[in-house]
Design brief:
The protein is an alpha+beta fold. The protein has helices at 2-18, 32-66, 160-171, 174-189, 194-208, 212-225, 321-328, 335-339, 345-359, 364-378, 384-388, 396-401, 407-421, and strands at residues 68-71, 73-74, 134-138, 141-145, 231-234, 239-244, 253-256, 259-264, 276-279, 304-307, 317-320, 426-431, 434-439, 449-452, 455-460, 482-486. The longest helix is centred in the first third of the chain and has 35 residues, at 32-66. It starts with a helix and ends with a strand.
C-alpha cells in the first residue's frame, strides 16, 4: 500500500510540474512531445504498480503453499462479575443534600422494548439499487453493486490447496477488484471504521454466495486487497476469518507470530476440540492492526423507533433501529471501545433540546447532579443475564434503547453526557464487581475520590440510586480500580 501511494505521489508531482512548463498561447495546440512524455510516464506507473502487485501476490502464494500450521485457540470470554439483582440505593439518611433543581422520576414505560425488527421496506431515498447489476441491504442502507458477481471465484474444497486456488483465481478477477474498490469508497461515505468495512464486505458476499466458506474467502480477499493483514483458517468442517485487533476482543483467538488473530463471523466459532490450520505468512506490505474504535457513528438508513420515558419533561427519543442492529452485531470488545463511542448525532440533538434549557445558568456541580439523577433514575436497572441470558456491553445509544441497563452501560452513557455538556475531566473506573465514573470536580458533596495523574477524581456513580458526586458504594470504597476510560 505504501508503494502504491508513493507511485501516485510521483504522478501528482509530475502533473504539478507540467503547469510550470512554458506552454503555447491560448488557442494553440499543446506540445505533443510533452503529451507523449506524460503518457509514457503514466503507462510506466501502471506497469510498475501491476508488477509490484504481482510480485506481492507471488510472495503470498508461496506463503499459502508452505506456511500452514495447526494452532491452538483461546476462548477469551467476556468478563462476568456478580451483580446485584436490584439497583443499589443510598441510605435515605444520606440524601438530605439532594439539589432542588435535580429531576425526579415516577416510572419508566418500557412495554414491548428490546425487540429489534428488520426493516420492512427498502430505503426510499436510494433508488440506485433498482438499476444496479446487484444490490444488498447494509443495515437499512441499500448498496448498489457494479457487477452481478456471477463470474466470481468459488472454493473448490476445504483445504490449503483449495484456498490457494481461490487466491490465484481471485487475483485474476477484475470483477472482484471492481466490487471491492466500489465497497471501499462507499464504506468511507457511510463513515464506517475497519470493522464496519469488513462487515459491509460480509453483507455483500451474501448477495453473491450462498455458501458460507465462499463468503469468508470473498471478505478475506477484499480485505487483503484493501491493505488489511487478515488471515483465513480452516478445519475439517469449515473456514474461519481472523483479524488482528487494536483492542481486546471477546471472541476466540489464535496467537500467530507476535499477534492475536480473532475469529469473527459469520457462522459459529471453532469448537474447543476442533483442529484449525492457519497460514503464518502475511500479505507483503499490509498493515497489522484492525481498528475497532468508533470515532464517527455510521451513517445508516433510518428506521425510526420512539423510546418513551415517564420522566419529568423528558421527550420521547427517536432512535434509529438500524444503528442499534449494527451495534448488536458488533464483535464484543473491551470497555474502552464503548466509552469512546459518541452518541449518534440525531440522538444528541434531541438530548440537547432536553438538557440545555435545564442547564442554563447552572454551575458545573448542579449540571452534574442533573445528569447523575437522569441516568440513575430514567434508566431501569436490569442485569444482562436478566435481559439477554449472557453478559454484554452497550454502546451509549443502546443504553437509551433497551428496557434497562446495568452498571457498565450506565457509566458509558454518563461518560458521553459528561463529555457533551460539562467542562470536567472524567474517568471510567473498573472494579472487580462494579463499573462507575469519577470527575475532577472539587466541590462534590462527599469525599470519595480516586487519585489519577496528579488529580482527585470524585466518584459519580450512575447506578447508586440517590448518590451525588463524591459518594461511592461501600463495596468499592477501599478497592483500587482500573481506569478504563479518560475524557482528556
Amino acid at each position: 500500500m505504501r508503494t502504491r501511494k508513493y507511485i501516485f505521489y510521483l504522478l501528482n508531482i509530475w502533473l504539478c510540474l507540467a503547469f510550470f512548463i512554458p506552454g503555447k498561447a491560448k488557442g494553440q495546440v499543446v506540445d505533443s512531445s510533452f503529451l507523449k512524455e506524460y503518457n509514457d510516464f503514466y503507462k510506466q506507473i501502471n506497469q510498475d504498480f501491476e508488477a509490484f502487485s504481482h510480485q506481492n501476490d507471488s510472495i503470498f502464494i508461496l506463503f499459502l503453499q508452505n506456511s500452514w500450521k495447526e494452532f491452538e485457540g483461546k476462548e477469551n470470554p467476556i468478563p462476568v462479575s456478580p451483580k446485584p439483582v436490584n439497583q443499589p440505593k443510598i441510605n435515605q439518611n444520606n440524601t438530605e443534600g439532594n439539589l432542588n433543581d435535580t429531576l425526579n422520576i415516577e416510572t419508566i414505560i418500557d412495554e414491548n422494548r428490546g425487540s429489534i425488527e428488520e426493516p420492512k421496506s427498502r430505503q426510499k431515498d436510494a433508488p440506485e439499487y433498482l438499476s444496479a447489476a446487484s444490490s444488498f441491504s447494509y443495515y437499512g442502507t441499500w448498496i448498489a453493486l457494479p457487477s452481478s458477481g456471477k463470474d466470481l471465484p468459488t472454493l473448490s474444497g476445504i483445504s490449503r490447496q483449495g484456498i490457494l486456488d481461490y487466491f490465484v483465481n481471485a487475483g485474476k478477477s477484475t470483477e472482484l477488484k471492481e466490487i471491492v474498490l466500489n465497497l471501499k469508497k462507499k464504506s468511507e461515505v457511510y463513515k464506517l471504521n475497519d470493522w464496519g468495512y469488513a462487515s459491509m464486505l460480509l453483507k455483500a458476499a451474501e448477495a453473491f454466495h450462498s455458501n458460507l466458506n465462499d463468503r469468508i474467502l470473498f471478505t478475506w480477499m477484499g480485505l487483503l486487497h484493501s491493505g488489511y493483514n487478515v488471515k483465513v483458517g480452516y478445519s475439517s468442517v469449515r473456514l474461519y476469518l481472523m483479524v488482528p485487533a487494536n483492542v481486546q476482543l471477546y471472541t476466540p483467538s489464535y496467537a500467530i507470530g507476535n499477534k492475536d488473530y480473532y475469529v469473527l463471523g459469520p457462522g459459529p466459532v471453532p469448537a474447543e476440540s476442533e483442529k484449525v490450520f492457519v497460514h503464518e505468512g502475511d500479505y507483503p506490505g499490509n498493515k497489522t492492526d484492525f481498528n475497532f474504535m468508533i470515532k464517527e457513528v455510521p451513517r445508516l438508513g433510518n428506521e425510526e423507533y420512539n423510546r418513551t420515558f415517564k420522566y419529568v419533561n423528558a421527550p420521547d427519543l427517536r432512535m434509529n433501529k438500524n444503528l442499534i442492529k449494527f451495534y448488536e452485531n458488533y464483535p464484543p470488545c473491551e470497555l474502552a471501545v464503548y466509552f469512546n463511542t459518541p452518541i449518534s448525532p440525531t440522538l444528541t440533538k434531541q438530548l440537547d433540546a432536553f438538557f440545555l434549557p435545564i442547564f442554563e445558568g447552572k454551575t458545573e456541580r448542579k449540571k452534574l447532579a442533573i445528569l447523575l439523577d437522569f441516568v440513575q433514575q430514567a434508566i431501569v436497572y436490569k442485569t444482562d443475564k436478566e435481559q439477554f441470558g449472557e453478559e454484554r456491553y452497550f454502546f451509549p445509544d443502546e443504553t437509551l434503547y433497551y428496557p434497562g441497563a446495568d452498571c457498565e452501560d450506565r457509566s458509558v452513557l454518563l461518560a458521553r453526557l459528561i463529555k457533551r455538556y460539562l467542562k470536567l475531566d472524567a474517568i471510567g473506573l473498573l472494579y472487580p464487581m462494579h463499573v462507575t465514573m469519577a470527575v475532577a470536580l472539587t466541590d462534590c458533596d462527599e469525599g470519595d475520590f480516586v487519585n489519577y495523574k496528579g488529580k482527585k477524581f470524585y466518584h459519580c456513580d450512575p447506578t447508586y440510586l440517590g448518590a451525588l458526586c463524591g459518594k461511592a458504594m461501600e463495596a468499592v470504597k477501599h478497592s483500587t480500580p482500573e481506569v478504563v476510560y479518560q475524557s482528556f
